[in-house]
Amino acid sequence: MTWDDLKDAAEAVRTRHMLTLFEDDTRADGFSLDALGMRFDYSKTNIDAAARAMLIEIAREARVEAKRDEMFAGAKINDTEGRAVLHTALRNLDGDPVIVDGADVMPGVLDGLDKTVAFAEAVRDGSFTGQGGKITDVVNIGIGGSDLGPAMATLALAPYHDGPRCHFVSNVDGAHIADTLRGLDPTTTLVIVASKTFTTIETMTNARTAKAWMSEKVTDPAAQFAAVSTSLEKTGDFGIASERVFGFEDWVGGRYSMWGPIGLALMIAIGGDAFRAFLRGAQAMDTHFRATKLEENMPVLLALVGIWHNQGCGYATRAVLPYDQRLSRLPAYLQQLEMESNGKRVAMDGFTLDVDSGPVVWGEPGTNGQHAFYQLIHQGTRVIPCEFMVAAEGHEPELAHHHTLLIANCLAQSEALLRGRSLDEARKMMADKGFTGDELERQARHRVFPGNRPSTTLVYPQLTPEMLGQIVALYEHRVFVEGVILGINSFDQWGVELGKELATSLGPVVAGETGAEGKDASTRTLVEFVLRHRG
């Protein structure tokens, strides 16, 4: 099966209206999947039985099942860095052996989890008092995977918060840390510095600023710092005692790391039991992914829908639209997960890909997006596949009428994308409003919706810690499957390196300490403008 075969199949049905597929009464159930209490509905796409069979065959030819088994077994599938890929071990709560370089890593994983949870509980119950008698606020300083994951999950699980307030700082822009620290009391604040190497320039710049802020009121500022890092030397130089340093192995990638110590802020917010439930949810999805045949495998089917739309149909973007305000950071989290993982231009052998790699991922929560960018989704000239998600039940029973309206809006949007509105329907609408002649025609054409625009919907009972774990693991495995089919390494990120290197060299130039010789004319003139206008 070739990419041209897939493109030809997609082109053959491009003009077919998806509504015709629903003439088959079994369409909705036949192109939906129930697993782990969730329903994934992909019936509002142009994938039919033949296309699905083709996509399954593509997955088999790519050896998705074998690659999946290699990942879980600890094989070094991140071959550009010579590393295993075992974020799944962090949620292997039953401790089944996972072998890396001949040794079972699970005793260390479980010991590390116990140690991190114990510190979180000490902060929560007041055993760790800091120097102000208690900890009321926690500031997590990180960037990328050290920020997006725990920040997203902490917001998502707000109904389960019963610990100190948690804040997150990532941007090196001084406004971020200034605005976060303003109003906090240094004596009752714990700062977590999350950086595997303890050298990430944005994180360490913010950490030093936080330490200076802490020192204004606290005798021993480093005593109210904890670190998530593998460098005991550098954390020690910073002044953080080793018992407050929590490390993780190099087989845990940054954007896959919140299941371990990177989730410390989340642990403090919701407690160890709820955090373990979060892990259990992800573990359940791991089990489903490993044990279920491709045709009934939720991560596989989600990935194949993505392959159909991106590589088959040529739709370059994907909108993630959670109808859950507490999932407002999920699109950004999935943006990193997908675009840093699968935003590659060469295959595993180093040769240029002969097909487009990952899509542009973006989105906002509903219903806000309906009053922002849905106009382009419904009537714009480009087709944008949409991924809706919504809970059957909210956490505010006294506001159940709000949730009913939320669900109605979610389902209405996917229905509108499917059905559209024909010109004849628009003409009748405008005639009923009293328009006639050329003006009726003009007004009607503005109200035509092409429809036939694809979407998927993920429905789950309620956003609990366990359910959030399932959802995040679902998308992790989706990214893995897409990467295997594309033949790329989803677990390195060399694309972030060049800009970091150039920023380091430009620092002294922007500070006015050295000249801009060797830089291009645009960069030189921009530096000159900045220097003229700095105070």
How would you describe what is shown here?
By secondary structure, this protein is of the alpha/beta class. It has three domains: 3-13 and 37-62 and 292-336 and 360-419 and 454-483, 3-Layer(aba) Sandwich (Rossmann fold), CATH 3.40.50; 87-276, Rossmann fold (3-Layer(aba) Sandwich); 497-533, Phosphoglucose isomerase, C-terminal domain, CATH 1.10.1390. Helix content is 46%, strand content 10%. The chain is built from 20 helices and 13 strands. It has helices at residues 3-12, 27-30, 49-61, 64-73, 106-125, 148-156, 174-181, 201-215, 232-238, 264-270, 272-291, 298-312, 330-342, 374-379, 400-419, 423-432, 437-446, 465-486, 497-510, 521-533; strands at residues 32-35, 38-41, 99-100, 103-104, 137-141, 165-169, 189-194, 225-228, 245-246, 317-323, 360-362, 386-391, 455-460. The strands form three sheets. It has a six-stranded mixed beta sheet with strand order 1-2-13-12-10-11, sandwiched between helices. A five-stranded parallel beta sheet has the order 6-5-7-8-9, sandwiched between helices. The protein has a two-stranded antiparallel ribbon with strand order 3-4. A hairpin with a 2-residue loop joins strand 3 and strand 4. The protein is globular. The protein starts with a helix and ends with a helix.
